[in-house]
């Protein structure tokens, strides 16, 4: 098969609306998808996102809102989808884990794993956090017996009959997998964490809930619901189960946050091994960011909405501001002041200014005709270097490189004072104009990946058939 790419985001819980943390993950995946489309062609890329709906916390949220669960789920899924549409996410499919295409696939896989002898009935006696939708050990909790991520939520004490997945049987196969595929989970530090977790020993995990009110029933025992994580992970596979998409499975690449690495890099590959399905091609676990140094949380009232930021600054600013602020894979911080400064200096003052000045100068001083450059220019080297960052998934690196290229071009303009030079030595000035125009060309090409809403406007400014387009203001929405 020709190379293809299947990129996924996590399916998000719908007990609340998206915040910039979720948007960070989705925008990162979107950027990689846009890059892959340019490289491989549109039809070779499949970008999936969606919603995780079979969760107890969603049922609780619906109850709290006084709405029946199905209506709540539908409304919330629409809100998530609308948010991604508003901020310009180029997903190819949006999967809801309550859809029948997913439920059928979950049944099929559950049955396969059961038939293989990897699912058995037992008793689960222990702790559960509905906030994380995770079984907990006392050692996972804080001193006062609370979940460190959901301290306001009561930890549940469970004592129920459950079906268990024989995860312990996959300790060795998983260790071998990581040994044979050292780059499978990026960044490397995450692989080290998972490998030491695997070496510490694996216990079987509960994969059904007897008391869950909502969710997918077990095919062999409808009185139980499939544990929400066991169901949710399967979404990636469910979305490829149509004729036109089956080939994409072997190119699956998951972009996730570091908080859910164990689910994706221990349980998920073990489930696939058990079901006899090929493992995805790789996983990238990015970091988390804080807001002004503090964890984003509803109770602290510091949750930032991507829609609000986009309304104030525009979609390109939202994505560029988030993705360029810290290395993809590391943790970072968001602050409104830094964001405003970024907008002012890099976008309006940097990119916007360059495009406007160059097109206006060529219009005025060359009658709109782009002079032909005879000397060679580094456009190809620029593009190759840029591609290198994206191949390595260094999103911040790609943005930094982009802005450094803008600075170089602006510097060339300022240092040569080409507007003065044109009056005394037009031939010399023409060389500079042509070079600056080539900068605009390559910058507008790279913008298709990094600043996709501005890219068509940039192309209009670059113009066609040797004629520059009209000048204009690319970034003027920074109303502070
Ligand atoms: N539903 C599960 C995922 C199932 S995937 C089979 C889930 N959903 S979630 O909505 O709680 O969060 C999903 C992802 O949102 C996280 O893994 C992470 O990618 C992203 N983030 C949530 N908060 C974030 C930050 N503060 N910073 C960066 N990313 C964050 O877990």
| Strand arrangement in the largest pleated sheet | 3-2-1-12-13-7
Count of runs of 4 or more consecutive helical residues: 17
Shape: elongated
User: What hetero molecules are in the model?
Assistant: 5'-O-[(L-methionyl)-sulphamoyl]adenosine
Count of separate structural domains: 2
Entry keywords:
four-stranded antiparallel beta sheet, alpha/beta, 480 residues, 15 strands, binds 5'-O-[(L-methionyl)-sulphamoyl]adenosine, Isoleucyl-tRNA Synthetase, Domain 1, 2 domains, single chain, 17 helices, elongated, Rossmann fold, six-stranded parallel beta sheet
Protein described:
The chain has 480 residues and is an alpha/beta fold. The protein has two domains: 5-286, 3-Layer(aba) Sandwich (Rossmann fold), CATH 3.40.50; 336-462, Isoleucyl-tRNA Synthetase, Domain 1. 49% of the residues lie in helices and 16% in strands. The protein has 17 helices and 15 strands. The protein has helices at residues 20-40, 56-65, 69-86, 100-115, 171-180, 188-199, 228-233, 235-238, 261-275, 306-313, 315-323, 336-365, 379-391, 395-416, 418-424, 426-450, 455-462, and strands spanning 5-13, 45-52, 93-96, 119-129, 134-136, 156-165, 185-186, 205-206, 208-209, 217-218, 221-226, 252-257, 282-286, 289-291, 332-334. Strands 3-2-1-12-13-7 form a six-stranded parallel beta sheet, with helices on both faces. The protein has a four-stranded antiparallel beta sheet with strand order 5-4-6-8, covered by helices on one side. A three-stranded antiparallel beta sheet has the order 9-11-10. A hairpin with a 2-residue loop joins β10 and β11 (221-226). α16 packs antiparallel against α17. The radius of gyration is 26 Å and the shape is elongated. The mean pLDDT is 94. It binds 5'-O-[(L-methionyl)-sulphamoyl]adenosine. 5'-O-[(L-methionyl)-sulphamoyl]adenosine is lined by residues 10-13, 21-22, 24-25, 52, 232-233, 256-257, 259-260, 288-289, 296.
